[in-house]
Structure to design on (252 residues):
């Protein structure tokens, strides 16, 4: 049995949330363990926020499987330059959302890994970490056997999008390492030119073209790809979007 409690608008307003991250604590009791507490985070963002989504395994880490186990034995298995790139994106006014099909039992280790990842003194920016609510075996079956992690990701992202005005798509760009990530991002309205796919060699493809880019080289182009939110330049006609992005599809 799955039980879900969704707070009303009035209940959320009573929490007096501040903009950005808020920590809430759930308290419950069990006959065996007595009183227990579980912490969670609620993020309050503006209605016109631009969200950049990032997968975790194979995108922030260098591979899907080893990326989960190597950090546990103290080995850095992260993609080179990811912390600097994501920090630059955040500094330009965008919000990062980390999305993973990992099982809910891995939530703590995933959160600790992302919080402790540092490259040349640079840490990943803060952002929501959304993980599959399923157990370990259902998650492995969906991802390894059926190869359909996008089913969870699409449903999750559509729920998040529904929190925003219907005429405003909050999702601006997406980073992933699989075709299923691209499927998920396209489904929620991210254009092909804003979907970045990285392979185990650290090469990043934009619109399925590699051009031997890396997170480090993307960092030098960040102001064109992710124009500062305070910029008055019309985004469609900046030097990156005008020359690099594919033209929109027009129904005739």
């Amino acid at each position: 049995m799955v039980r879900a409690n969704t707070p009303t608008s009035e209940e959320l307003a009573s929490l007096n949330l501040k903009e950005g991250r808020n920590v809430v604590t759930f308290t419950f009791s069990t006959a065996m363990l007595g009183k227990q507490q579980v912490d969670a985070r609620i993020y309050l963002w503006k209605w016109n926020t631009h969200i950049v989504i990032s997968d975790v395994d194979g995108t922030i880490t260098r591979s899907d499987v080893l990326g989960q186990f190597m950090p546990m034995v103290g080995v850095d298995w992260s993609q080179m330059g990811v912390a600097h790139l994501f920090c630059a994106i955040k500094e330009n006014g965008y919000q990062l959302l980390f999305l993973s099909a990992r099982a809910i039992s891995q939530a703590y280790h995933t959160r600790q890994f992302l919080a402790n990842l540092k490259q040349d003194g640079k840490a990943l920016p803060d952002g929501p970490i959304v993980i599959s609510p399923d157990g370990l075996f259902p998650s492995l079956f969906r991802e390894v056997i059926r190869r359909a992690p996008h089913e969870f990701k699409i449903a999750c992202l559509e729920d998040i999008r529904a929190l925003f005005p219907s005429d405003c798509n909050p999702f601006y760009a997406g980073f992933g390492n699989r075709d299923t990530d691209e499927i998920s991002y396209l489904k929620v309205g991210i254009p092909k030119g804003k979907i970045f796919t990285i392979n185990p060699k650290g090469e990043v493809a934009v619109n399925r073209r590699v051009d031997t880019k890396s997170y480090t080289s993307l960092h030098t182009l960040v102001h064109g790809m992710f124009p500062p939110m305070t910029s008055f330049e019309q985004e469609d006609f900046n030097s990156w979007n005008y020359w690099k992005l594919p033209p929109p599809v027009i129904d005739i």
DSSP finds ten helices and eleven strands in the chain. The mean pLDDT is 82. Residues 150-161 form the longest helix (12 residues).
